[in-house]
Amino acid sequence: MPDSTALAEALLASFRHSFRTYKNLSDGALAQLSPEEWLHVAAPGSNSPAVIVQHVIGNLRSRFTDFLTTDGEKPTRQRDQEFVQPDSLTAVATLQQQWNPAWQILFDLLDTLQPADLLRTVTIRGEAHTVLTALQRQVAHYASHAGQLVLLGKQIRGLNWQNLSVPRNQSELFTAAVQARANHS
């Protein structure tokens, strides 16, 4: 049975991997969209890719700035404004500039967390969570938004969409390639 430090280190590595995976998936979807397509609203009441990006940026900044010492819902955050549809390509360009720095706040935090930190208490909207629980909550949150961005990208790009995972009808070929790489390592 692994000791608690080894387990905590494995969990932190898993969180780093998961967050990086969902950022990369989001990046892959967003890269296929023109700035105009970032503003596409699929149906009344739905969110454009720009709105989802705007929300994730706000969430990353709020949750992970001073993560261990302040509430994850910062008083300066204007969450409702994150869901207001941007109305210009200038706004999209601003979001594109803010995207990576917002994620970097999280990645910098993950690089500093220690195994013992996973059981520390942090708050989100005044509600206490362990660091472990707060990170898992955010993994699930960003996974859902990455999925939304992929779905919107597929809908917007149609047949011009470049697959970000195993292409249809190519599962056996993909599995064989994975196994061949594993055999050569």
UniProtKB/TrEMBL annotation:
Pfam families named among the record's database cross-references: DUF1572 (PF07609)
Matches recorded under InterPro entries: DinB/YfiT-like, DUF1572
Protein name: DinB superfamily protein
